[in-house]
Amino acid sequence: QVQLVESGGGLVQPGGSLRLSCSAPGSIFSRNDMSWVRQAPGKGLEWVSYITIRGDGRHYADSVKGRFTISRDNARNTLYLQMNSLKPEDTAVYYCATGRGTYGIRGQGTQVTVSS
Description:
The chain is mainly β. The protein is built from 1 helix and 10 strands, in the order βββαβββββββ.
């Protein structure tokens, strides 16, 4: 069973920052583009960002463009999401996933709550 493990979530005030991490088995990580997706309370999965296998291509949803940065460390089999200027509407469970959308293998998620 493939296991992706997210970490780094928490409670942060509006305007604050968080850095999410996701570790994955090397056999999976090295062969896949990777994404971050999120699910807000009462809503469906929303794609946030993806990064290509070698890290030379990055794409973002309009809602996070300019505030979030996706990156990966292929030596450590780890995916990151740097989130700055956080807004209450960013509150969600964040998942890392294989592939470029919401349909890949996902981890258990990490909760991000943006509130004063």
